[in-house]
Queue: 2 jobs
Job 1
Amino acid sequence: MFKKVLIANRGEIALRIHRACKEMGISTVAVHSTADADAMHVRLADESVCLGPPDAKASYLNIPAIVSAATITGADAVHPGYGFLSEEASFASILEVHGFTFIGPTAEHISLMGDKVAAKQAVEENGVPVVPGSAGAIESTSEARSTAQEIGYPVLIKAAGGGGGRGMQVVRSADEVEAAYTMARTEAKASFQNDTVYMEKFLERPRHIEVQVFADGQGGAVHLGERDCSLQRRHQKVLEEARSPALDDTQRDKIGKIAADAVRRIGYVNAGTIEFLFEDGEFYFIEMNTRLQVEHPVTEMITGIDMVREQIRVASGSPLSFTQEDITFRGHAIECRITAEHPETFVPSPGQVTNYHPPGGMSVRVDSGLYAGYSIPPYYDSLVAKLIVHGRDRSECLMRLRRSLEEYVIAGIETTIPLHAKIVENSDFINGDYDIHWLERFVAEEI
């Protein structure tokens, strides 16, 4: 087992990793920019190293600086968290060359799944259902037109090398193809330094269902159930729940087995998430995330499995500590992503937290690095806390979530807590009747 782990991230996920390490008797190294010198994970870590100025390129994305920090502190391994370098294959390779263990999948699998076209082909070969679409990259406007005609409108042109809604264009008629194709490639190039795009059938009212998988590269591979991540704004998840109110047991067992079998066949190692669109009883693969997800706590709440702990164990060479038969699903969990944004305009709201009081009580969890007096820097993602609640069933979970949102106090800045409070009172959400476009409509009509 590792003796010291460097945490190559910031915010709540850095604190989450620190806590798992300490409970395993592992020392931690926090790295940070000058803007994060007072961050909670930096205060609590056994050691800390300043990487550079606030700009992420000069700090959290600065691979030479991170490798140097690992070297001078004598770290055995590096946990990348999510975002930043977590899905950068070259980072995993460089760490390996320098004798450090990357707590995550292999560079080969990161690279494979980072290319959406190659990923789609790989999973389809291993029994995973995919969205009807192009066989590979779309190389020209004329090819885009002919492919769209074959698939049938509406279609979606997507960046092969990224996600988050960037490099993505919906096309509803032949007249829109040329402009959409050009815009998608331009956005993809600007965002991911890769203008390769491909095409898929556009589903009108799908759910976003993702399956959490875990494999050890030694023949052990399991799924930890599904999460419903359909509540999104501008392709960014806002609220997630497990298990999905849209699936029955037959559907969830089927897709879970398909996902676990697929990662076993490709020799995958560590945690991963296979994401699907779900419509009219059918699943369609969209991508695989080769890292820990922001929403992993809802899975932890219904399974009782510490996923970060298991990531560390598997990275150290140990087999999975459980089999599929060992995993049981208990109750229901929901996570609200709390961001430092105005709840109506979504304008970022960095600044000093003047008062902070997180909710508590039975089955209530808050993952956050906030504290009274802390100043949220304006340079990074606006996520400042995750409120996760668990109940014996979805009804109890919703009641507990309402109560927890009422208790949560983050003063001095604007947050999206009021938005979440409105969502959980809405009858569509209460009934589990929503899709990936629902929140956009709700915000336009209600906010």
Note: DSSP finds 15 helices and 20 strands in the chain.
Job 2
Amino acid sequence: MMTILGVPLSVLPGQLMFGLVNGSFYAILSLGLAVIFGLLHVINFAHGAQYMMGAFVAWMALTYFQVDFWWALLVAPLAVGILAVALEKLLISRIAGLDPLYSLLLTFGIGLMIQGPFREIYGSTGHRYSVPAALAGGQDLGFAFVPNYRLWVIAASLTVCLLTWFVIEKTKLGSYLRAATENRELVETFGINVPRMVTLTYGFGAALAAFAGVLAAPIYSVNPNMGADTIAVIFAVVVIGGMGSISGAIVTGFSLGILEALTKVFYPAASSTVIFVMMVIVLLLKPAGLFGRAP
């Protein structure tokens, strides 16, 4: 049997698939952060809590109201997005124009305020969320047996990421959003309601986090700490890709998911730190990130 550094080649395809699944979550979560920072200049540390809320809304909808997974994919992002819109209007808009550090501190506090009640009511143990019946089972791809649900997660995440990139980079709405970050007053002279656009953009970024939370619910346990356990890695992904870079968030998210999975095979002890090591290396060589633009 052929090996690489003592590792059988037969285990690599399965591990790559595992990396793609993790990379899917990294990509869609970092995309939401990149959208919010790139267009609003807000460092949204509440993103992890919004991801957790998406998973909990799906779990509660199924547990208490028998709302299935497919409806939860719509209901959870909508509910979390509406809450995020309210937070932006009531709190975040009040620090607009200030140093991004203020938004980091504010959203960090908001995240703790969201996480606290969930931990108090539901505890820190995980809650099981079943894979939808339509996606049960798996596919024998020859090199590995892959659950249907994980293939769906990869496809759904990639589709949402590409659609978001297209809207922001290739449509008139996206051009207005980008222009508003450069010259808000000029955009308002064309009759565009910039404050409303900013609020809806923050809501959309939070909805992306909630969508990822629903996708994660059948794979990981639904628990109040799931966002806090993930947010540091997601910020590292965003920094590596370039703060505010949409394409950087997508490409880096998937790539680092694969890198992390391969590290677990060849050097397991470094698997939990490899992304942060990459962040340090990138910041030393290219402080703006791989896809970022220097100020």
Note: The beta strands are 3-4, 7-8, 138-140, 145-147.
